Amino acid sequence: MLRTAVVTGANSGVGRSVAERFVRAGTRVVLVCRNRERGERVRDELAGRAPADAVELELADLSDLDGVRALAERLSGRHRAIHALVNNAGVYRARRERTPDGLEVTMATNHLGHFVLTTRLRATLERGGARVVNVSSNGHRSARLRRAPLEAILTGEAWAGGIQAYCDSKLANVLFTFELARRWSGSGIVVNALHPGVLSTRIWNQNANLPSLLMRLVKPFMKPPRVGGEAAFALAAGPSGGGAGGRYFDVAVDAKAGADAYDEGLARDLWNESERVTAAVLREATA
């Protein structure tokens, strides 16, 4: 039986790179993409290198929490066990945007969507002795999640600019990783956070503000996405259920995260607020 890996944001950059590595390793890969055309293109390209039915495409916008819940239900219904989950999808927005549910788009996509997906897949991940990789960034060191109530940050009421929102979401990824490792200790699931490197990816192509323009200018000097893909694959494809989790990796190096990442009180507060906010949205979606 083929092992199964799920990769979000799999149509480009690190996500596509790690999906390619899984295909080369003979693993069934579920590509989670927001854009149908790009997703189908990658699925068709990878399917040509894999056994029949070993590359699947799921369409989901990680900022749409009800859509993410439906995605988790489909994955659990189709796969008895998932052996690897790479939470890679991410956005950067120069201007404040909110989802129809009233959540700030960067936080909803980069953190809350993955929070819902991962927690709702717990039983399926346990059966696979899964490795979970949350793709973060060294930008988490510039986060300021204590500057305002967490609810205000998650909803965008405490908006402090696109860069701040991105950094805040990346700290949320690390806090979620460490809290998940504590709460799921003994489950057989190993979860780690990863800074994939400063890479030439599409994330900076989505805006026309000064930071995005500057990043585009230096993109030719950045490392290719495969560097991050190889690092994510190494963490996600380790022995099932083996190794210690709750760590932060700077590409291939087991590194120390920013100080706020080790604030267990902040991690608990973020978990509880994420749980409260997502539950409220999902109750409304089914009302």
Topology:
Blueprint: E1 4-8, H1 13-24, E2 28-33, H2 36-47, E3 55-59, H3 65-78, E4 84-87, H4 105-120, H5 122-127, E5 131-135, H6 150-155, H7 162-183, E6 190-195, H8 210-218, H9 225-236, E7 248-250, E8 253-255, H10 264-286
Parallel strand pairs: 1-2, 1-4, 2-3, 4-5, 5-6, 6-7
Antiparallel strand pairs: 7-8
Helix pairs in contact: 1-9, 3-4, 4-7, 7-10
Characterization of this structure:
- The protein is of the alpha/beta class.
- The chain has a single domain, classed as Rossmann fold, CATH 3.40.50.720.
- Helices cover 46% and strands 13% of the residues.
- It has 10 helices and 8 strands.
- An 8-stranded mixed β-sheet has the order 3-2-1-4-5-6-7-8, with helices on both faces.
- α1 crosses α9, α4 packs parallel to α7 and α7 packs across α10.
- About 2% of the residues have low confidence.
The CATH topology is given as Rossmann fold
Strand content: 5-15%
Please state the overall shape, judged from the principal axes of the Cα atoms: globular
Class per helix and strand makeup: alpha/beta
CATH superfamily: NAD(P)-binding Rossmann-like Domain
Note the main sheet: 8 strands, mixed
Which CATH class applies here? Alpha Beta
Which ranges are low-confidence, i.e. pLDDT below 50, for 5 or more consecutive residues?
215-221
Mean pLDDT, all residues: 91
> How many helix segments?
10
